[in-house]
Design brief:
Blueprint lengths: L1 H8 L7 E6 L5 E7 L5 E4 L2 E5 L18 E4 L4 E6 L2 H4 L9 H12 L6 H15 L10 E6 L13
Antiparallel strand pairs: 1-2, 2-5, 3-4, 3-6, 6-7
Helix pairs in contact: 3-4
Organism: Actinomadura darangshiensis
Keywords: Hydrolase
GO molecular function, one term: phosphatase activity
Length: about 160
């Protein structure tokens, strides 16, 4: 990926990214973080903490081969990946929205959200309201949930 971005855009451009692989059968989550805040682990509607691991430089600037981080999810765990624009936003002269306010918002919204889709939608709307509708940087949310067991519910039988 580094080579492709560098070849297409040159040395003055880069891309931040988070890449994840979830084994739907076992709950083993692997990820590489290239320039974003660490994803948050949410269990029973509470933020357990950030998924700690090795980070790497943004894609396109070279550097060492990224180290793959890994953790074992429990059934029902949710993982929220987000961009720094979500927590770094601030009003003119005001303080940044911050990670503590993000965690408080997650824990307020999560119990009322039955599905992943509903939680990320509710979280997005709530964050926009709490930030006064201001977004001057990218503010992206990506939420996954591991239910445990097989991933059979994700496929449809062929007729």
């Amino acid at each position: 990926m580094d080579t492709a971005i560098d070849a297409q855009f040159g040395p003055d451009h880069f891309v931040t990214a988070q890449m994840m692989r979830l084994n739907a059968g076992t709950g083993d989550l692997q990820w590489v973080n290239a320039g974003h805040p660490a994803p948050m682990l949410i269990r029973d509607h509470h933020v357990i903490g950030a998924l700690q691991g090795h980070g790497t430089l943004p894609v396109g600037v070279g550097g060492a081969t990224p180290l793959i981080n890994s953790t074992q999810l429990h059934p029902g765990d949710r993982v929220l990946a987000y961009t720094d624009g979500l927590v770094e936003e601030h009003t003119t002269g005001g303080e940044q929205f911050g990670e503590e306010r993000l965690i408080a918002t997650i824990e307020r919204v999560a119990p009322a959200s039955a599905t992943v889709q509903q939680m990320v939608r509710d979280l997005s709307y709530t964050l926009m309201r709490e930030r006064g509708g201001i977004t001057t940087d990218d503010a992206t949310l990506f939420l996954i949930e591991w239910r445990g067991g097989t991933a059979d519910h994700l496929t449809r039988p062929l007729l």
